[in-house]
Fold this protein.
Amino acid sequence: MNATISQPGPAGNHAGRKPAPAVVMDKISFSFSGTRIFKNLSFTVPGGQWTCLLGPSGSGKSTLLRIISGSLGPVAGTVNFDGERRNKRGTAWMAQKDLLLPWLTVAENVLLGARLRGEITGRVHSRAGSLIEAAGLAGYENRLPAALSGGMRQRVALLRTLMEDCPVILMDEPFSALDALTRLKLQDLAADLVAGATVLLVTHDPLEALRLGHRIHVMTGRPATIDEALVPASQPPRRPDDPAIAGLYASLLDRLTGKPQ
Amino acid sequence: MRWGRMVILAAGLLLVWQVVVMISGVPAYILPGPVRVVRALVSHSGTIFRHTLVTGMEIVAGLLIGTVFGAVSALVMMAFKPVKRWLFPVLVISQAIPVFALAPLLVLWFGYGIGSKIVMAVLIIFFPVTAAFYDGLRQTDSEWLELARVMDASPLAILRYIRIPAALPAFASGLRVATAVAPIGAVVGEWVGASRGLGFYMLHANARMQTDRMFAALMVLAALALFLYASVDRIMIRLVYWQNEAEKET
């Protein structure tokens, strides 16, 4: 596990390319069954970094991800990627549930996007193979998801997300259903493999945000507002004993509970 | 273990049957004992076998055609919403008419041969398959669909790679129900008008008070139905292989 973490990530394929774009949302408004979730919300996710979005359940965090990915259809306001309109394959999405298809093997699940688009090629296969190996899943390629542990399943989901090779990755509490140790390992693996992409991670775990985020925001209220970014001094992924984590934990909790700073 | 229990159960039932017949002294033309029935089965095995082949063929053909027909109509209803709005009520109405009432008509239209019996079986099989498969197709996990859309999958690719496989367990239970009721269609068809088949043979024996032969044919029919069900069950377990895997693991 540790050996794979120290390696440069296979998804560092963004390195030789143009840098991952910033996601710029401008004056987003959205209502759901009569409730105003967002009203003229403007928010920017800087390119090539991990931005963590914290907030209580039901604050609209997942909805915001769906607006960025386009799953909700058109909404009032604009979303652009570095000034350009979002194209069809601009984002990859990773959810809390692993969403593995139980009738497909590990390798087939990793290749799901390519299969759905009819883009299976030798190159795609070999990339999937090297990702599976980097994630420590070698030997499990032909197993069904039912034979895997929760942590392994979520690793497969991470690889499926990476295979999309999208510059923008949206993560909706992907580690929250895992036990503490598995979560720690998977966070490191994700930080390593995803390096270079623009990531918006929605979570309700302040520690997770402090470990992984270049920038940390808190979303509260209805209609929801997003506060100024908290920017820890050190680079993520931070070790659990990083002083930045201990130093910012209390103030982050205050922001979450709405106490005056 | 499972088979052992089955054998003991069958032997027990046969024993009770034989004892009841012996004690009560019912005449054999009302209720023949199992020994008598087996003797009739052995001495007429050739004839019964020929009729069994006919009935078996009718059921299998009905199953194949009914399944294909049912699966296709479920897919069409899934793919084209307007078709669903018009076709589904028709299907429900068609189920309100008892197939038994249609049997004489079907014999009139499709003749005394196996054609009318196959149509009969198809009519019975078609609905459970369509309803179960369509339900399965509709109830795909919405997050799977969202994931596929974010991956920019076409509706056809979603149908092929996600909706259809996800609906296979529901399809399998529909087909199991259909297999259990399929023999009814064939036999009722044979009762109404036929010159071959187990249903015809039973009616023929009944009219001549050859009750032991009738029971013999009934036993063979039950065995045939069980065999078909077990075969379909086997195939369905293969078809939804991942579910058994899940059961093994937990």
In short: The longest helix of chain A spans residues 180-194.
